[in-house]
Design goal:
Blueprint lengths: L1 H19 L30 E4 L2 E3 L4 E2 L5 E7 L3 H6 L7 E6 L8 H7 L10 E4 L2 E2 L6 E2 L4 E8 L15 E7 L3
Parallel strand pairs: 1-5, 3-8, 6-10
Antiparallel strand pairs: 1-2, 4-5, 6-7, 9-10
């Protein structure tokens, strides 16, 4: 008899606990008044390019805006003790280069100063000819830049990784040679 009462009591208890978890819609929060969640995604493009050393500055081919005819490769390191000291950024090798011209190369902030880009637009992600670049390794010959513009990419473009359809990018357009 005790077993029957115990099983019946547990059955009633479990059935009642299911009803306790039910909340009428009056008690639920209204989600219509909330703004949508904005998610920011940083897009990176995996690269098999080596790290370029130009004097004491580090760059890569995508972030170096000079005419490719002006790049002279002095030495290439692939598997050496030099790469161990440079860490994971040198995993694809290191190329020591120099330029045939001696014009100064400018960092990204200097280029944006030269083209008078406003402060609120400097926070945008930077593209070169609609391709993502590493802003920390950016080096450019100013003569190779035609203009700096703010653009929106269409939804099918591979660089556009965020949820924001109206996301703007700072696009640096190079001179066609």
């Amino acid at each position: 008899m005790k077993k029957v009462l115990l099983i019946t009591g547990l059955g009633i208890f479990y059935a009642a606990s299911g009803w306790c978890q039910y909340a009428p819609s009056d008690y639920l929060p209204v989600l219509d008044d909330r703004r949508p969640i904005t998610r920011y995604v940083l897009g990176t493009i995996p690269s098999q390019e080596p790290l370029l050393l130009l004097g004491n500055q580090e760059t890569d081919y995508a972030s170096l805006l000079v005419d490719t005819k002006e790049i002279k490769v002095l030495q290439v390191y692939k598997d050496s003790t030099m790469l161990a000291g440079m860490g994971p950024k040198a995993k694809n090798g290191v190329a020591v280069i120099e330029l045939t011209h001696k014009r100064p190369l400018l960092k990204l902030n200097d280029v944006l100063d030269r083209f008078k880009v406003p402060a609120q637009q400097r926070k945008l992600r930077v593209l070169v000819n609609k391709n993502l670049v590493n802003e920390k390794r950016f080096l450019a010959d100013v003569n190779y830049i035609a203009k700096v513009e703010v653009i929106k990419l269409d939804s099918t473009h591979p660089i556009r990784l965020g949820w924001d359809e109206n996301e703007q990018f700072l696009n640096i357009v190079t001179v066609k040679k």
